[in-house]
Amino acid sequence: MPPPTLFQALGGLDGVRRLAHAWHERVLADEVVSHAFSHGFHPDHTARLAAYWSEAWGGPALYTALGGSETAVVRMHSGNGAHEEMDRRAIACFAQALDDAGITKPALREALLAYFSWSTTQRMSAYPASPDDVPAGLQVARWGWDGLQP
């Protein structure tokens, strides 16, 4: 039986940090996806990403404890028009980062890749026209073994 959360299955915060670091390295090396970071990024991007994913995957609410919000994350990714090629490549980078981080369990890989694909193509791409379209008060989406959690 798998651990109760994806966060725990990854080995807690240390495992999520390894994955966030591997993903960040992959996207910075990708000629298309790296464009999203061409105007700079927060110096603690990887740590903040790990806190965000930890919260989404059933771990402690680290991201919101840092003052982050889902609305702010979605707004940051909004207003850039459609970018299907960038999305596809970001998802491919995530799949490669799973390898880089040593995540080999098929069910865990499948659940994490499903989350990242959904988050990239649905949640973060829902407001292509303007970040002003993103509603206030969004909650960090929780993801489990079977997908989006209530």
UniProtKB/TrEMBL annotation:
SUPFAM superfamilies (UniProt xref): Globin-like (SSF46458)
Keywords from the named record: Heme, Iron, Metal-binding, Transport
Classification via Gene3D superfamilies: Globins
Cross-referenced InterPro entries: Globin-like_sf, Globin/Proto, Hemoglobin_trunc
Name of the molecule in the record: Hemoglobin
